[in-house]
Structures
1.
Amino acid sequence: MTEQHEAPGGVSGKALQRDIPQATVTRLATYLRVLAGLADEGVAIVSSEELAVAAGVNSAKLRKDLSFLGPNGVRGVGYDVAKLRTRIEDVLGLSQGHRVVLIGAGNLGRALVGYGGFGVRGFTVAGIFDNDPAVIGQSYAGLVVRDIEQLSAQIPALAPTIAVLAVPDEAAQDVCDRLVAAGLPSILSFAPCELRAPAHVEVRRVDLAMELQMLSFDAARNDAPALPEVAQAGSGRIARRVPPQNHPALTHPAPVEPARARPQRRTAPHTVTPHTATEPSTKGSVITP
């Protein structure tokens, strides 16, 4: 908990945004979700370890992420939940809230407009549009579906800052062009296709099928049997710990001639080396005296 709530030198959240890595921004959104839950539970102070565990990161990474926000906590005390939450909201640009227009009143669009979590996180769905005569004029979550042809005319009154696309692939680019022409600065698309937009327009894509494929890969990787530690004859596979074929242990040198078959020079008993007992019994091994 600290009385300092702004960044050093009174720098605002907007000034800090340019210096925060994208990966940190993603985690800040996670910290904000956790802090909102803690606030709902009446928690006033949270330690970095507790917040890190709840967010699924280690405490060192959490402290580094929060360092981009300026001083926010006191060593040995923790973070003021309300103040840290407000600080992250400021940096993420949520302090003033956002108005959202939804394009597409199909199953996905109706599910999104009916989701109550947007409002508590600073997002207000201001309008919903579609081109299907069967749904135009219908009301969902208190919003009447408007004709997509009215989009440009309705934008000034709705004053949205973000548009969400829940339309089929073949319609996504046309709708994107309409939104760009209407002056929308940020677009979130649930269509898996890539959208072309000017550099000043931020476009993010949510590909649910791709996310499912990543989960499928993780599940397949976790279920894959581990490679055997020792190679089995005739298996046709080389285990991880089997040395390469040019390793001395895999070579087949000529048998060692017995010592009695070699002509040796007679020496006095006292000249026998004291390391005789440690000499290797087979070729291919190296033992340091």
2.
Amino acid sequence: MSRIANCFAELAGKKALIPFITAGDPHPGLTVSLMHGLVEGGADIIELGVPFSDPMADGPVIQRASERALKHKVGLRHVLEMVAEFRRDNATTPVVLMGYLNPLCAMGYTEFAARAKAAGVDGALTVDCPPEEAAELQSALDAQGLDTVFLVAPTTPPSRVAEIAKLARGYVYYVSLKGVTGAGHLDIEDVARKIAALRQQLPLPIGVGFGIRDAATAKAIAAAADAVVVGSRLVQEIEAATPEAAKEQLTRLVAELKAAIR
């Protein structure tokens, strides 16, 4: 059983909290400490963003995080080194790399999967890799026992959800609204209806992200979803904090979110 599957099994119906931060933001030397801070706050799974120069699915908050990381020349190899360092003290919390296809393609899917496995990565979510184009990457990940996490959008038709259901591993990430990360105007009732419909086709846990900014919203989403994904709000916390205070403030916010969904 993968670390992700084991995580959801151990939750036994309780809702998972999946925080996102960008590797290398605000400085590469802080990332592993921030990851441990997420766990101390109650993170069940960590989504770790791979910095990219053209993060088209992300709003300005996460775009700025990628820019800050790229100023320090943080690339995919550095991200894998960060995960390996995290694994020296944490062998249980799943880590999913979230980002774009180009860095994986540049490294080579087979090499990426092998390096990711060796580092202690548990899965990958590439937001610009549709299921129709995922065969080569998924084959490489499957060979290493890594999960391929797919996005499902409000506009995804049932026929395409059926295809994703065949390919997805670990969990499925439902994008709660049309737009980029950090956008507002989240319709909780509409999300609940969409999740109920998706459960008819998807056998995996469903995590919901985009637009979840506080404990109240997280609690409302958790009533319908299996997992709550929070990214932009946490990255804002990092952006506003001093490097010395970032871990403590991040841990506190994650703890508030965890308490809300439980």
3.
Amino acid sequence: MQTLDLVSADSGVEFAAGVHLDVRRAGNGSRVALVLPGAERAEEDAAFVAALANDFTVVAPSHPGFGRSPRPDWCTSVDDLAYLYLDWLEVSGLTDVTVVGLQFGGWVAMEMAVRSCARIGRLVLVDSVGVKLGGPLDREIADLFATPRTELDKLLYADTSFALGDLAHARDEDVLEVVRNEEALALYGWEPYLHNPRLLHWLWRVRVPSLVIWGGQDGIVAPGYGRGLAARIPGARFERLDRAGHRAQVECPAEIAGLISSAA
């Protein structure tokens, strides 16, 4: 087991179990927030991380296979990611950590919390996927992989000016990050599609204050899904931001950071 050294803002960092991750660190608050991203580019979360850093020390890794983080061959499931981050919390010695899960990262955060809340002080989910609330024939999460790019942007953002747009005109490094993130998302969430059918039945094990935040114009998972998710987490509070889409932290970074800070 290896010690994690978080000393620079943008550096490759070795987590426990010999996994190297690209980690962004911001702020120097006494409270720590572990931000687990979705499939967005790291640059898209920059404003949110900066806003949250006004009150927290923020640690924001790219998951193995996303961004610039290599993926070991054995790391192929959301379970693996959950155990990786729980192991890091143990190795770091941190307690009372606010775990913030953004979209796909919300699924990872829930898998962490149902396993152990020993070092988690608060759970925050922003437009999370990860559970199945309806029946087997109910489609609750839009098909990210089959939707054309121009239509996908309209589902992800209430204001499509936040989107990268036509990839043919984007920077090469941005296109590579998008492709790599989508490839990793498919690896972790293809079958069953972006959820763990058992997770819903274990949410009662989330024994920390929880906040569920949703974009009112989320075209990937509707606000009703968010309310249903919050209702199944003991004592969870639900907040809706009407002018945001699926990546609410991109469109409303200050508002979400404020909700998290006031709840912590």
4.
Amino acid sequence: MNSALIPNLDHRQENITIPLKMENNSSTLALSSRQTHSLVILDNRELDRQCLAQCMAAQKADLQILAFGSIEEWKQKRDEYPPLSAILLNVGGKKIDEPAVSEQIRKLSTEFASTPLIVLADSDDFGQIVRALEFGAKGFIPASVSVSVCMELIALSVAGGIFVPASALFAMRHLLDSSNSTARPLAGIFTDRQAEVVEALRRGKANKIIAYELNLRESTVKVHVRNIMKKVKATNRTEVVFKLNDLFQNSIPALS
């Protein structure tokens, strides 16, 4: 079976028999008249997509859930279904930056620019999430969430929002904290103003330029330079730069 159309079952009708109709030697369940839009699940693993589609269908009675192995299979029957509301691409345990996966995300997000493409993956790795969004996805859902939460997140994307797991936000905060820590590695040795002068010295800037950029008098810059030299026990500007680079080579970013 290349594709599957999964019924959206109302929980109150669990014991009602829904008639089947035959199409191209495959069976599909009769559709509800309330289903005005559709969601396409793309997954080349038939069992996985069938199970996911059935669970989703039980959660959303007004959305027709479709499951296909590829977008080409859906295109062959697209006229038979309600307008497309969103695409859920289940990559499973694959990496987003694998050529086949990244190309699929790019292609789908470009071809269906007005339809949100959401990636469902086993991982919630921060780097993978960022790459998925860079390639054009409008959301990233980890497989660790429940089906009901997954449906809510899809609805958020349809409404124009972009969802990423909380773990990604924590990872981003950690990176920002690390960045801030690296940005001021001299804070324990120099004052804030002296640290700014140190960075300018490392870039080989003259006192006049430093004074202009930091909005200081040139005489004030000279005082800062003398104090910096005393703290690192240097006798001239060149020695200041040499000692700082040697002392903080693992914490101060390389100059560009």
